[in-house]
Amino acid sequence: EESRENVVEYGEEGYGEEDQDTFDVTVIQSAGDTLKHRKVGLKFPVLSPEDAVEVADFISSRLGDADVDTNAGARDAKMSFADEGRGTPATSLSSLNSSSTEEEQSYVYLQRWGPRFSRLSDMFNDGES
Fold first, then answer.
1. Number of other residues whose CB lies within 10 A of the CB of residue 124
2. Which ranges of 16-115 does DSSP label H, i.e. alpha helix?
3. By the 8 A CB rule, do 105 and 99 touch?
4. CA-derived radius of gyration, the chain
5. Known Pfam families for this protein (predicted)?
6. What is the distance between the alpha carbons of residues 120 and 108, in angstroms, rounded to a whole number?
7. What is the pTM for the complete model shown?
8. With pLDDT > 70 as the criterion, what percentage of the chain qualifies?
């Protein structure tokens, strides 16, 4: 019984879609009549040709700013985390073995993929059949 103390019984009239008496339908019906349509015009500033910024100049300017910004730091720097992988159910990727030599890998199956993959087959098979 304690688990049912927050259960509310909705057996009373006035709940659900069958209730047509507790609200005034005319309010809903007349709401469309009170809305007025008005045209909203969007106005954007028009730049004269002498005020327009050339795209190439803008990009060059931003590249120059980025080159001299000492606070930016290297975005392609390697980041190492001391706790990477600890305490998770995921296993290390080092357990996946790959072939150690090229001789162990065969890409002959690429030839069976058809002419659309012939260039890929040639790259991996070095012209072998």
1. 16
2. 25-34, 55-68
3. yes
4. 35
5. CADH_Y-type_LIR
6. 11
7. 0.22
8. 39
